[in-house]
Structures are given as C-alpha cells and as structure tokens.
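Dear Dr. L.,

I hope this message finds you well. Following up on our conversation about the binding site, I have prepared a predicted three-dimensional model of the protein together with pyridoxal-5'-phosphate. For your records, I am including the exact sequence and ligand specification that went into the calculation, followed by the structure tokens. Please feel free to forward this to your student if that is useful.
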Amino acid sequence: MPVSPETPKSAALFERAARVIPGGVNSPVRAFRAVGGTPRFMDHGRGPYMTDVDGNEYVDLICSWGPLLHGHAHPHVVDAVRQAASKGTSFGTPTAAEVALGEEIVRRTPADEVRLVNSGTEATMSAIRLARGFTERSVVVKFAGCYHGHVDALLAEAGSGVATLAIPETRGVTAEQTAQTVVLPYNDVAALEELFAQRGSEIACVITEASPGNMGVVPPRDGFNEHLRRVTAQYGALLISDEVMTGFRVSPSGWAGLDPAGADLYTFGKVMGGGLPAAAFGGRADVMNLLAPAGPVYQAGTLSGNPLATAAGLANLELATDAAYEHIDRTSAALQGMVAAALFEAGVPHKIQHAGNMFSVFFFDDDEQVRSVDNYAQARTQSPVKFSAFFNEMLARGIYLPPSGYECWFLSSVHDEKVLDRINDALPYAAGAAAA
Ligand code: PLP
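The resulting structure of the complex is given below.
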C-alpha cells in the first residue's frame, strides 16, 4: 500500500527558512538535495522516534548524526541539563563539570590530557595546529573521503556533505590554504610509504578517521592503522586519530577499544556532548602541554566546556555501559541482516559494510560492481539513484535514514525489537523501489 505523509508545515517552514538561511538549512546535508523532497522540520523526539511539525513520527536512524547514543530526550540527560541550566548557562570560568568530563574521557581513552571545544571541526583544526607547533613542520596528510569538519586545510577531497553534493572543491578555500595538505587514497600503504620516503621530514601529521564513516562506512584494512602508527613514528610526524564519529559510539573507548593501534592525538565529539555542542582533542601529555596557557600554541573558546554541554555529555557517558554497547551491537547486526535480506529478495545489488555498530549500505547499478569498498574512488561507484529511491520509500513509511549514501546509519541503546519490526515492515517496499 503506498503511503505519503503530509508535510505542509515542513514545506512552509522550508520556504520561510530559504529567505533567511542560505539553502534553508544550517548544515547542507539537511536540505535533502541528494534525495529530493521536502526536508522534515522536527518538533520533538522521544527515545528512538522523532516527530515532525506536521505530526508524522519517524524511527530515527541518524541519531543527530551520532551523538544520541541513548535516543531522544533520555530522562537522565534531560535532568542533567535542566539542573545545570538552573545554576547558570555559562560562566567563562572553570567549572567542576569540565574537570569531571575531562577525567571521564581520559579514563576511557588512550589520551593523557584533553582540551574541550565546541565542535568536531574545532577539535581537528586545533589538533592540527598543535601538531604543527609540536613538530615545527607544515605538511598535513589526509585521506580522500575522510571528513574532519569544515576546516579549510582539510576540505580537500573530503567525504560527508562535500561528497553528497559532489562539490569538487570548495570555493573560498584558497590554494595557499591547501598547499600544505597532501591527500592520499585510503587504505593504500604503498602510497603512504612513497610520500614519507620523499617528504617525511616536512610532514607534521597524518590525520585519519579512526574508522571512516563519511564516505559510507569504509573500515581500515587489517593493520592499516598500525601501519600509520609505525610510519609516522619512524619519521617523527604525529598521528591524529579522528574519533569524532567513532568515539564512545563503537565501544566504551571508541575505535581505540576495537583497534588499539594508538595515535599521538585524538579528536572527539558527538557522543561526548550528549546532543549539545561539545567536543575535545587530546593525547600525549608532552604534546598537549604545548597548548596555551601551558605553552605557546594558542587555542581558546568563549563557550568551551559549557556547563550545559558538559552536563549532557557526562550524563550520556554515564549511561554508556558495556550492556548499552552490547545492545547496540546486537541491534545493529540484526538490522544489517534485515536490510540484506530485503535487498537480496528484491535483487538489488548492494554491499553492507560495518565498523563496530556503525554501518552503511552501498547500492550499485549492477551485480558486477558489487565489491568490498576500501576507498573513496570505490565509494563513488555507488548508485545515487537507487539509494534515493530506497531512502524516499523508507521516509514515506516513517523510517528516517541518513539522506545520503555517503553517510552512516546510527542506532541507540533504546532502539528495540519494536523499532526493528517497524523497519522490517517498510524494507520490502523500499527494496522494491530500489529494484525498479
Ligand atoms: N570528524 C569527523 C570524523 C566527523 O564525522 C565530523 C562530523 O561529522 C567532524 C569531524 C566535524 O564535527 P562537527 O560537525 O561537530 O564540526
């Protein structure tokens, strides 16, 4: 039975928004450009569900792009924020909650020390400045398809929204700003060796997503992160493991808990803010102590360590127990199985890839293209048309997927059997639409 939810209020808001906000959204992927249709303006969320301004309810499979490890409006997180807000929203002085969140991050991860910031972008930008300050070198190496936020020097061949919108290069980023950025293919050990052999003494750092989720989910091949660790150490460059997406999501300590290759610096965000703006970068004490005021590398923020954000982050992490991760891992495996079964049944060529409990689905135009996806060039052979047909049918049936084939699906500790049943009811229709 075809269904199509009514969305007049979302449509009206989108029109209003477009008059005052470029493209009608405050982050490009929200505009549904890759999949078409009216972006849904959300009114509220509860657990694994969110409801738009027209009253349509959706199973949420983006979880705010990762932060909501325990679903929407979890009472423990909401209470923590409420209590913090009642004491004052910001002081511009140190607070006890910042110390507690810093301690919790250090306890869970390999980082010796952390500095809190407001977004993943700030975290990677600051980590790079710090790596350059420490090594007194300038070249930054990144991998094609990895997204590290909208830092000028890192927007070269970035994944996520840049990939979704097929933007070849971002206007406004000058050649000078990316002149010191070298982009390598992901999972390519030979390319890395060659670059270091030629320019090793110029390289300040290699930044990599701990396990990439911004070109779809493309995990590191066995030993790839270890190789990065070895080569950077050999040449005196720092390794920055970007755990903004994976951190506290795929295990209590993030990707580092699943693949202990190690790094010099780490960046965190999303889950550690509990849905409020908080992020961090951290790592080796000798490197971190170069930061002002301890050292000469300047970095600052009016709202860094904000009391509401730190309270939400701490509350989110308090709920992030082993049992919570076991539940998310199980639910994710079950959902991947259901998606695969529906797509096989409908004869849709596809490949599902996962990194811990994060996963994404690559749709292909024909069976010959189906293969394991190891890098950005391969990720770009996916079929946007099939993805879009699948996405829109799921949306029409109340299942909210990431609106791009380059993004990862996120679950939470409150996604349960009931949710899986609802998704399973929608899947045959969506698979049928992708097959057509
Ligand atoms: N690094 C990674 C791996 C990310 O996935 C993201 C955002 O999706 C960022 C950095 C940037 O974080 P933010 O959007 O909070 O600036």
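In brief: The longest helix spans residues 322-346.

With kind regards,
A. P.
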